Amino acid sequence: METTQNRTAFRTCPLCEAGCGLEISVSPQEQIVRIRGDQQDVFSHGYICPKGSTLKQLHEDPDRLRRPLVKRNGVHVEVSWEEAWQEVERGLTGVIERHGRGALGAYLGNPNAHNLGPQLYSSMMLKSMGTRNIFSASTVDQVPKHVAGGFMFGTAQSIPVPDIDHTDYLLMLGANPYASNGSLCTAPDYPGRLQAIRARGGKVVVVDPRRTKTAQESDEWIAIRPGTDGLFLAALIHVLFTENLVSVEPRIMSLLNGLDEMREAVRPFAPARVAPVTGIAVETIERIARELAGAPTAAVYGRIGVNTVEFGTTNAWLIDAINVLTGNIDARGGAMFTTPATGSATTRGTGGSGKGFQMGRGHSRVSGVAEVLGEYPVAVMAEEISTPGENQIRAMITVAGNPVVSTPHSAQLDAALADLEFMVSLDIYLNETTRHADVILPAPSALEKDHYDIGLLIYAVRNIANYSEPVLARDAEMPEEWETLVRLGAILQGLGTDVDPSVMDEQIVTAMVTSAVTQSSSPVFGRDVDEIITALSRGGRRGTARMLDFLLQTGPYGAAFGAQPDGISLDYLLAHPHGVDLGALEPRIPEMLRTPSGRIELSPPQFIGDLVRLEKSIATHDASQMLLVGRRELKSNNSWMHNIAVLTKGSLACTAQLHPDDAQRIGAATGDEVRITSRVGQIEISVEVTDSVTQGVVSVPHGWGHDMAGTRMEVARRKAGVNSNILSDDKAMDPLSGNSVLSAIPVTVELV
């Protein structure tokens, strides 16, 4: 008997870092009827932003790829999966035979952080390549946070999260959560949480060269000259020391190295020296330092705007140093560390000390830039493709990314990709990057695959676990994303196209379980491998669900396959479709430390040394220089969202925002076209005159530029905008982390 009732499914939204719960109504014909916030979700409590309800439009988008594409005579045509795999094998093995494995390269884009398959299986594919030429979106975004946390606390995942639900004072730099929903700080309804700080008598202060929506809704907006955040932060620490406001908690003080070194290193950064450069008055700098020190609890949080500049890593370090020096590290209401359900580098192994953080285990072929997190900075990807010599990249694999729009010196990268011998992309769109691919392998839509935010929940403001089953069934011919990655790995290993991904998956899971039972710190130490694999595979479970179950069962709250009857597992999460709240963040030092000394390294030599470079920047300050900064819109978190019609309507626009004084100086009015020129490129764009940006600043949003030939994103093409990364400089990198400089870019602006 056929049902006439709609069914309800629950899942976590995968479109940004907030992780909001969705309630999805599905008709008997398996059509999405309605998407709204899940009122019972333990984390988001019904909150969603405009993006959350558009999963239906994304799923139904006629431009979303549903069959593989192969380029023939310069045109992409649909083919069968079998034919696509044959082309992949021919192309990749051909390059390996001609040039060796050093000629392979890979790029992983931002959506990988929001998809369970790539989070769990991309490493298998990357290892199968046998190359060091790995790149990702991390080095245009967040790697300074990983490097700072790594050297201070021991691992790349040792990034403290502002405890915004309990703090009395929040200082935010270069962050606009009213638009981004938070970043490396997973918090549904971030705006509501900020409003709650003020409602309970606390204070929110925003430091930004733009009066963002977040700044408008805060207690205080402090306008700063782009790129000078490090000077401001160092001056805050200078005041803390000179006014005897340093107040490190005794528990932390007993584990702290480098206090005296920090005191000496910040001596050159008196407020009077940095004020003319930052544009922030001496009195304001001194007052903010006193407020941080005097608040019952306080947290300093910085993101994109302070990480994508030439002192990005130093900024990230100084922020965490202030949290330490004001007694707010690892303390309720301060900056704290999570205990994620699937575990992390801060929960595995023996607590209290470890190998510590390392980088520079290799250097790029052309520029000699250091490796970080197992990859090279994306800024050198183009030169690694275009520069002849041994291990020149001749074949690329891209997974869910659009670097032609999102990475530096886009025109150079675009030309380099066109020169490759072979390229294969795993993506849902034929976009500005994948148009270069010889083969494009599609993935299921977000509604056709399971979901768990492994990476994002490592940085959540509460310890949460929430698993989502697929809402809709995949087409019979469409493989799961993990299967595609495993098959790519098999081809790269020389095993051909006929390998059953399930067989490879068995090998992966067996190796994972075997490793765990031999580690004394593991909750399954000494257990029988076959027993655990049998339990994991019950009911035919495989792929992402099986691997996630293992991580949950062996995580900090895990059932450990019966050893902890009250522990969690995938079955436990399935029985709780609105998620499981595992509690507020709790102090974790010293257990979470993984530094070789077993102590907090307040003053790593790399960072202390970079303060010399920071001080020298004072003398090179040029107040007349126009500086380019980016911006985000709530409806436009990433470039592929521009192909969803409902998100591109209304106020969403790609304009150059200019302060009225700058507009008057060059003779421009709103609607006029201006030419913006940097060292590497030039764009023409419509002006929006507004006092929401400070004088000397021009702001252009990222992710636009959809007017290239050979793409199939018709909605985006109708509102193409201009690619701001034509202006960003591939040679401008933060030397400590290799992160690209995408903000505070020197430019000239003139009326067209």
TrEMBL record:
Stored PROSITE patterns: 4FE4S_MOW_BIS_MGD
Region Disordered, annotated ranges: 340-362
GO cellular component terms given for this protein: membrane
MF terms (GO), sorted A to Z: 4 iron, 4 sulfur cluster binding; metal ion binding; molybdopterin cofactor binding; oxidoreductase activity
InterPro entries: Asp_de-COase-like_dom_sf, MoPterin_dinucl-bd_dom, Mopterin_OxRdtase, Mopterin_OxRdtase_4Fe-4S_dom, Prok_molybdopt-oxidoreductase
Residue ranges of domain 4Fe-4S Mo/W bis-MGD-type in the record: 6-63
Biased composition (Gly residues): 349-359
Entry keyword Nucleotide-binding: no
Record keywords: 4Fe-4S, Iron, Iron-sulfur, Metal-binding, Oxidoreductase
Gene3D superfamilies from the UniProt entry: 2.40.40.20, 3.40.50.740, ADC-like domains (2.20.25.90), Dimethylsulfoxide Reductase, domain 2 (3.40.228.10)
Entry protein name: Unannotated protein
Organism of derivation: freshwater metagenome
